């Protein structure tokens, strides 16, 4: 009897410990709180796989994500959080996992997978629960889900989500920019009847971005995009001088400067500032932009010359277009016909290769969403290497996490391939369209030259009688000197052409 009592006493502490720490949850939590993620993560993983208590299992799944994040494995952490979010609001760590997923999105700056997960989870059934999340977390969710709605052309839904982002949020400027894009989209419901009101609201949204103070995410880049969007809004409204002013505010050599130069060329042309339009294109065709894919810029240049009846210059410009882009159109034909496997399409962009024309290749790689896929794939590969060489090597945690990372990698390759195929088709379609436009201009130029000849107009004499004058100076701080074929870095963006006009004056009988 005495021996049995001793045995009972000896076993008593173990029995109490088992009741307090079923399966080792407290040990895992103690290691986590001590910053020992190498110990905590495998314990939480084991509990997440084997615990019979739903509460312990659910908390372990969440703390596994936390441990992976603290270990410097944000993709693995987002996978853990996503599994909880996908399990639904009955999960004991549901809202915490939503918050963790948003944190990983910010850390990774990921805009393809995580916004899609949040969009699918953000249903009417959970909205009342999600409003209890921290204010900044909910603001980010509204912005991220708003981006998905905008991509899917669900404009009213996008508007509601983006307008819900408060001014004190760090994604306020990004949300205002996207709101302006949504409201100014010609497909927004209510247009054209409500166009004036919607344009006014879009204008206010873009100006809010430009007025935003430091502390906003990606503020400078977002402001540059807002300037381009503002220029587009004014251009669509026929306010060409205002459009040009917006484009000219985009800082020189910023990431979006070449796009601003190109679109400013159109605004100046529509504003009948032909010399200014050619000046923008002169900058765009400088050696610094030699690798740029801008076929339409040559069509615009030919159009400017055509409207000035400078037919020799039209033909020279179209010949330059043919020389630059004719071979590219043929080179893209194999990729724009039958669809390749998505992974093969992505690999065309991901690796340096000579199968694509270099300007098209650079244009593809400059796409923000493709760049993001490339960055995320690098992050996935880094985390796989970490798992293969770390303390968890050979453990079930490492094996399953690596398998999950490989699943994400496959999904990213599919996304990247889809984006690459779409952009390659867009490049091919653009080249075909602009080649057709070049042919129309070429034919019309020949017809107009014939008309001048039949009318007995001596165009060369007409041009000889005209003088070229210095362009109007913007202000006292400006200097003028003639362009002599050399492109200086500090001159690019400030070119202004002066043009003669080869069109004969209309007689009174010809004037409508």
From TrEMBL:
Instruction: Tell me which UniProt keywords the record has, alphabetically.
Output: Signal
Top-level taxonomic group: Bacteria
Signal sequence segment: 1-18
Instruction: Supply the name of the protein.
Output: Tetratricopeptide repeat protein
